[in-house]
Prior knowledge:
Layout: H1 9-13, H2 16-30, E1 36-39, H3 49-64, E2 68-73, H4 83-96, E3 102-106, H5 111-123, E4 127-130, H6 134-146, E5 169-172, E6 178-183, E7 187-192, E8 200-202, H7 210-220, E9 225-229, H8 236-246, E10 252-256, E11 259-260, H9 276-281, H10 286-295, H11 308-314, E12 325-326, H12 329-342, H13 345-357, H14 369-376, H15 383-390, H16 402-408, H17 414-424, H18 432-446, H19 450-462, H20 470-477, H21 479-498
Parallel strand pairs: 1-2, 2-3, 9-10, 11-12
Antiparallel strand pairs: 4-5, 5-8, 6-7
The structure holds one RNA strand of 76 nucleotides.
Amino acid sequence: MRRTLLCTPQFRALRPTKQMDFFSSLLKEATNLTVRTRFAPSPTGYLHIGGARTALFNLLFARHNKGKFVLRIEDTDVARSTEESIKAILDGMEWLGLHWDEGPFFQSRRFDLYREHAYKLLESGEAYRCYCAPEELEARREAAMKEGRPPKYDGRCRDIHEKQDKPFALRFKVPPGTTVVRDVVKGAISFDNSTIEDLVILRSDATPTYNFCVVVDDATMDITHVIRGDDHLNNTPKQILLYKALGHELPVFAHLPMILGSDKTRLSKRHGATSVMAYKEMGYLPHALINYLARLGWSHGDEEIFSMNDLIEKFTLESVGASSGVFNPEKLLWLNQHYIKATPDDELAGLVAPFFESLGLKVSGDARMAKIAGTLKERSKTLKEMAESGAFYFKDKIEYDPKAAEKFLSPDNDSLFALIIERIEPINAFNHKSLEEAFNAILAEKDLKLGKVAQPVRVALTGGTVSPGIFEMMEAMGKETVLARLNGARSHMKSLAAK
RNA sequence: GGUCCUAUCGUCUAGAGGCCUAGGACGUGGCCCUCUCAAGGCUGAAACCCGGGUUCGAAUCCCGGUAGGACCGCCA
């Protein structure tokens, strides 16, 4: 599904309703209005995958159009909002490098503003006092659901004009007619207003509700493009009506398709990690997640790898797809490995160090770190995996895998090890090249294949049969450790022979 | 139950009526390389949901079905 540019035959061939979508989005650019987008999470949990993508697309669109990206915390539900959540969300965005230009603004500090607007609607007759008790409403809703009727508020307080001495909420009076949502990714969608209920805009405790705050905020913060998950699509007609009642110009709407789990239901904890910070802990690079999220729902031809600058340059709302997508951890892993491989060794050393530490290994200040990371980067999908498979470098005493030791550290290899030690001990430039030369010489003298020598050495150095190439590994490990472990292996062989 | 959205390989997607024998990527099979494991290279299998229409021609436009999803709060 691709949206086209103006003035092409394809565009003119579109139905008039579809054409409106383009006009509304292009108008903003034509009038030179500064593009302003926002990410508006509610602080009732951590920053999750879906939220992160919404934030990303908002940022990308703003940057692409040289506009501003605003962060707003929607904490009108005082009971459910927490400080920890706010921090978690900010941390997540920070880690991903999603930097906002303005904010964070807190709705909880703007209650007066919402009340003011709500009462303006009361005065103009576009809102009314509703005296129904919440419990009563709840009972009616349940009854309606049970009988298969739409659970819509019946508007029974619409015509009560005298103020009563009872607690009341303010409801918006939904006018008759049809409301059309012009959405850049979904097209034009029309809603019959009779299916929209008179929503509460101000609760009986005088706190404002979500749909109302969003409109007041987006309008007063001059948000030009509302980019959010398509779970808000059904809220949009209500909000459009509110915009109109308040006398504000409409923003451009872009509803992003949902991210689904492997069973094609909405992504949730059941599908594994959904918290952005969990990916940090699992050893993912932030840009790998960014690249993955960008490509989930958006594409640019056949390209897969995008730097942040590429994304900003190439991102348009027109090339966002309309259908929901399944989160694919496998592909994320591939991207993560790609970016690990692309990270310079010294930088990687700093990134992977905490993962070694959490394995109980002291690595801080170890000068070998960059080289070690270099030997590991082509065989690690995550930083965590990298630390696990490289743990042997830092062990004080290596433990042999019993099977590997039995097969490769048998006493008859002792003379070979003695020779290896003798040859590498005098090497001063202890590197890949000189080591390979020394081994080649031994191989030639003894008429052996590398395979016969490499595996025993590998087991002696790492304890197992899987590791980076032996020469690069020995260089990274350092002469001292290599010699110690080779000698250790000889001791092991001798103790076996003595039995 | 009502409203709304969506539909191309297992997954993410390219596709703008003829460039389609449907392309790329992840994953997956095979081969090569090779000191193990990777990485890398080559190569294979794998999709237009179904039915009608419009058209000389439909993956593409329209309608209907089906399937999936979202929303229907004094939650956000």
